[in-house]
Amino acid sequence: MPSRRHKSPSPSSASSSTATAVTPGAKDPAAMFAAALSESDARDKAAREKKAKDDAARAQREAEIAAHADQLAAAHRDLERAIDAVRSAKRSGRSTVEADAVWKVAKARVIELETGTPPAWAPPPVSVASIDEESTEASLDSPVDGDAVAEEQS
Q1: What sign results for the dihedral spanned by CA atoms 43, 47, 50, 56?
Q2: Number of structural domains in the chain
Q3: pLDDT tens digits, residue range 53-81?
Q4: Does the structure show a pLDDT above 70 at 154?
Q5: For the chain, percent helix, then strand, then coil, each to nearest 5?
Q6: What is the mean pLDDT of residues 41-50?
Q7: How far is the C-alpha of 146 from the C-alpha of 115, rounded, in Å?
Q8: pTM attached to this predicted model
Q9: Is residue 9 part of a domain?
Q10: Does residue 12 form part of some domain?
Q11: pLDDT at 121
Q12: Residues 6 or more apart from 86 whose CB is under 8 A from it?
């Protein structure tokens, strides 16, 4: 025969009845899920932006390295041409002063590109303004160009 004592309600049945009731401080599960999704999207977007920024920086560094390598190769070619010009001048018995000056500039450029600093003996860099002034003065002093300039000014 069954016992006539009253049993206390089981914990699982008590919690299920209180879980369905919405307490005032609890959040809606759908809102919590939406917030989790938006946070996940924000993290993913930040990760994509960081990756794109890193890729752009890497591409920029690679482009700078390639440009430096091209400059160095061009400087080596110029140095070889200058060396050949000095040798040619010596063979033909001409003055090597100009060829030596060109060699010195080319060698200084190679050293600067390889080390990052120009050597102490390097000639001062020639500015574009001084080249323009020299070419203008030379054209004014030239008798052929002087006539043309005088005619243009008239």
Answers
A1: negative
A2: 1
A3: 999 999 999 999 999 999 999 999 999 99
A4: no
A5: 75, 0, 25
A6: 96
A7: 45
A8: 0.51
A9: no
A10: no
A11: 87
A12: 96, 99, 100, 103
- For residues 61 and 51, the answer to whether their CB atoms sit within 8 Å is no
pLDDT at 46: 96
The tokens of 27 are what? 């959040």
Residue corresponding to tokens 């190769």 = 73
The answer to whether 46 and 38 have CB atoms below 8 angstroms apart is no
Q: What single DSSP character describes residue 116? A: S
User: CA angle 136-139-144, nearest 5°?
Assistant: 165
| Spatial separation of the C-alpha atoms in residues 49 and 101, rounded to whole Å | 51
Residue with tokens 């401080």, as numbered in its chain: 25
Task: Find where tokens 């323009």 sit.
Answer: 132
What residue numbers bound the domain in which 62 lies?
A: 29-149
CA 31 vs CA 16, 35, 36: distances in Å = 22, 6, 9
- Tell me how long the chain is: 154
Q: Residue 137: its pLDDT value, please? A: 57
Q: What is the DSSP string of 39-90?
A: HHHHHHHHHHHHHHHHHHHHHHHHHHHHHHHHHHHHHHHHHHHHHHHHHHHH
Check if the beta carbon of residue 106 is closer than 8 Å to that of residue 73: no
Task: Classify residue 2: in a domain, yes or no.
Answer: no
